[in-house]
Amino acid sequence: MIAVVYSGSRFSDWRLADKGRITTGFRMNGINPYLQDERSILQHLHKNTNLINNAEKIKRIYFFGAGSSSKERKDKIKNVLERFFVNARVRVDHDVIASAISTFGDERGIIGIIGSGSNAAYYTGKKIIDNNYGLGYILADEGATNWNSQQLLKHYMTESLPIDLRDKLERQFNIDKKMILERVYFAPQPTNFLNSFTDFVLDNKDHLFINQLVKNGLRTFIKTYIKPLMKEYPDSDVNFTGSVAFNYENLLREVATEEFNISIGTVVKEPIHNLIKYYINKN
User: Fold this and answer.
1) What is the gyration radius of the CA atoms in the chain, in angstroms?
2) In this predicted model, what pLDDT tens digit does every residue of 155-177 receive, in sequence order?
3) What is the pLDDT of residue 2?
4) In the chain, where the domains are located
């Protein structure tokens, strides 16, 4: 039996397969070595009956997650998984590689991720070429749900949010400036708070203000990450994964084509579906 995991900061998607077929799939809270220690991750695993019931049967685990880039952070996740899945060989790698595999397979190209966070890289068909992107929700994440929520709250607190959106936001979340600052700067896991506004932005995507807010994030992402990669690797195909890329695909393609003359290929919301197929074929 194998397990394939794709984890963002908000959710982790799991698929278990045995003898060439998927036996179960489920979603848990995200696992991010930046935000959690080994003890809390292990406790998290022990709460899921699917994992408890299959822990000894699983022989290979392919874990791809946000924050799993450096050796230190990969080892943190690997140590936890090896303790829980006692008979398994474990591979831990960054979510960018998973996104590349899910859209390119073993072919080369530029992969962009815009979901709860954002990142981009060139994929050789075997590995990701290192770069200085993926700086997290404070310094980067342009276009992602974190970024959109930050912009929404910034406009709310500076009273530049249209009154109809302001009223909706207050009715739905019962927020004020003091509470927002407390949750962002002093409470644990501020990304969870920021991500709680994801559905609000999506539900109001046809509002001109939200439409422009989202487009500005996508524009900034492409300008900051995709354009430099295309300059370095010309004529590359460009694929995307992530909830924002998928939910606002029409805006993404519009901005890419009309403002940057970039043609976007495949857009996949959840890489886990293609990942499990890829690794079933490899085992």
Assistant:
1) 19
2) 999 999 999 999 999 999 999 99
3) 97
4) 2-99+272-282
Assigned token pair, 2: 């194998």
Torsion on CA atoms 139, 144, 148, 153, rounded to nearest 10: -50
Provide the whole-model pTM.
Answer: 0.89
CATH number of 2-99+272-282: 3.30.420.40
- pLDDT at position 67 is 79
Q: What's residue 33's pLDDT?
A: 85
Query: Can you give the pLDDT at residue 85?
Result: 96
Would you say 6 and 98 are in contact if contact means Cβ atoms under 8 Å apart? yes
Listed as ranges, residues in the chain with pLDDT below 50 are none
Beta strands in 98-213 (DSSP E): 109-114, 118-123
